[in-house]
Design brief:
The chain is α/β, with parallel strands linked by helices and 456 residues long. The protein has helices at residues 42-46, 79-85, 105-123, 138-147, 163-173, 198-213, 236-240, 339-353, 378-390, 416-425, 446-453, and strands at residues 2-3, 6-12, 18-19, 35-41, 73-74, 89-90, 93-99, 129-133, 155-159, 177-181, 218-223, 243-249, 254-262, 270-276, 279-282, 302-309, 312-324, 332-334, 360-366, 398-400, 403-404, 410-411, 430-433, 440-442. The radius of gyration is 26 Å and the shape is globular.
Length: 456
């Protein structure tokens, strides 16, 4: 139905996908009941954005004639943050950090700003750090810095939600590092007056990213997440930036920082912090923080695995529990390991080892709250589930790693020697893996693994 000076389209509030008629489910992101009616102004479509020149036409150039610029990174001074970024923040890049409210995003960025300002001062440079806040006042930011015993010298603070004010400050200061806390509070009159809408997020983020791409600067934006852990707002916001970082926590004071997207580094690195009265402190030796201290015996349903996160090895404790199903259909309760992986391991144990899980609910947990996605945890997960079902504990000092195939075979995984060396250094005396090696017991299938681990 046509409107005066415009037409009606339906846009998905989750990803920004639009089409001329309403649908119950978005074909782009798969979310239900997210289409909203919008009126597209035909005059606004042809209007130019801020600072654009419609008379200038961009023409293709031969790639061979393009001069590659030397890549350079800005070290934040926080080792765990730099590790997740791939060795520091790449110049001319945009970074998006998502996390639930109160997890410590602002604390991390205030510490980063103070560390960068100290480095700039030490080098004798006149470059500035710009901290833009749409959620807090300048006094609140100052109070946090003083509470964390941080120096505020060299940090410019701008408390506003207007995009135009932010762009004017960027043009006048030309900061080397800019923090937007948060992008969901920023709005522009060009996209309406209500912050946080899909159009506002896309428009404001695009303007800010466009600014940083033309200068030797770094842009960091924070964003809140939904109850499912996804960054609130359109999915296209993640496509606009170069790096997407997720900030998570366990039930304690431990914080996990890992990249979901990184154009300039690996997405396998994991940054670990503890929240203290002095702010976020990096965990320098996290190899044992995911293990429970047991010496003589451990309960049934517990197994230890050696996993790689980036270039570091962690020994993690996988916990399993089986109980009679509370409903007609048994279920898998697992949020730290993919429930589909747990169901697959249960099916393999039923088919290849004769252990029945019919009528049993399966509960899986990982000590320390770390999420595991590596296939090397299959062997330890199978041992923990077998132990929970039979009530026979895994012997103390046993570490397992290997990928489990549907045929019941234990397949090799990368860097077995490094995993075994780390496990031995932490006191594990019985190491099971799909390859032979010093101090390693070779197991080739699920039956030999069960026989070796649970032999009386």
């Amino acid at each position: 139905m046509a409107k005066k000076n415009g037409s009606v389209v339906y846009k998905c509030s989750g990803c920004g996908y639009s089409q001329p008629r309403w649908l119950g489910r978005c074909p782009e992101c798969g979310e239900w009941n997210t289409f909203e009616e919008c009126i597209v102004d035909s005059n606004a479509v042809s209007s130019a954005g801020r600072g654009s020149d419609v008379s200038v036409k961009v023409k293709p150039v031969p790639l061979s004639s393009v001069e590659a610029k030397d890549t350079s990174r800005i070290l934040t001074g926080i080792d765990e943050f730099d590790r997740v970024l791939g060795g520091g923040a790449e110049k001319r890049s945009a970074i998006l950090i998502g996390g639930e409210p109160g997890i410590g995003k602002s604390t991390l960025l205030v510490q980063t700003a103070a560390s960068l300002a100290f480095s700039v001062k030490k080098s004798g440079s006149s470059q500035r750090i710009l901290y833009v806040s749409g959620e807090e006042s300048a006094a609140q930011i100052k109070e946090r810095a003083e509470r964390l015993h941080l120096s505020s010298h060299g940090i410019e603070v701008l408390c506003t939600m207007r995009l135009e004010d932010i762009l004017d400050a960027l043009d006048s200061l030309n900061p080397v590092f800019t923090i937007i806390d948060s992008i969901q509070t920023v709005y522009s009159a060009e996209a309406g007056i209500v912050p946080g809408t899909v159009n506002q997020l896309k428009y404001c983020a695009n303007e800010l990213v466009g600014w940083v791409k033309e200068r030797d600067s770094v842009l960091v934006m924070t964003a809140h997440v939904t109850k499912d852990g996804a960054i609130a707002g359109p999915k296209t916001l993640e496509h606009l930036v170069d790096t997407v970082i997720s900030f998570e926590r366990n039930n304690d004071d431990v914080r996990f920082l890992h990249a979901q997207k990184n154009r300039f580094g690996s997405v396998d690195e994991l940054g670990i912090f503890t929240m203290t009265e002095n702010g976020l402190e990096p965990v320098l030796n996290p190899a044992t923080m995911f293990l429970s201290e047991r010496r003589d015996v451990q309960p049934a349903g517990v197994a230890c695995a050696a996993v790689f996160e980036g270039n570091r090895v962690f020994l993690v404790e996988i916990q399993a529990l089986t109980a009679p199903a509370k409903a007609a259909v048994s279920r898998v309760y697992s949020d730290k390991i993919d429930s589909a992986r747990v169901s697959r391991i249960a099916a393999i144990l039923e088919k290849r080892a004769g252990i029945r899980f019919l009528g049993e609910d399966i509960y899986i947990n990982v000590a320390g709250g770390i999420r595991l996605s590596e296939s090397a945890v299959d062997a330890a997960l199978a041992a923990a589930m077998y132990s929970a079902r039979t009530d026979v504990p895994v012997p103390v000092g046993t570490a397992l790693f290997g990928e489990l195939s549907l045929a019941g075979e234990i397949r090799t995984v990368p860097k077995i020697k490094q995993r075994a060396k780390t496990a031995e250094g932490l006191g594990f005396t019985n190491i099971l893996a799909p390859e032979n090696g010093a101090g390693i017991t070779c197991v080739k299938d699920i039956r030999s693994l069960i026989k070796t681990v649970f032999a009386k």
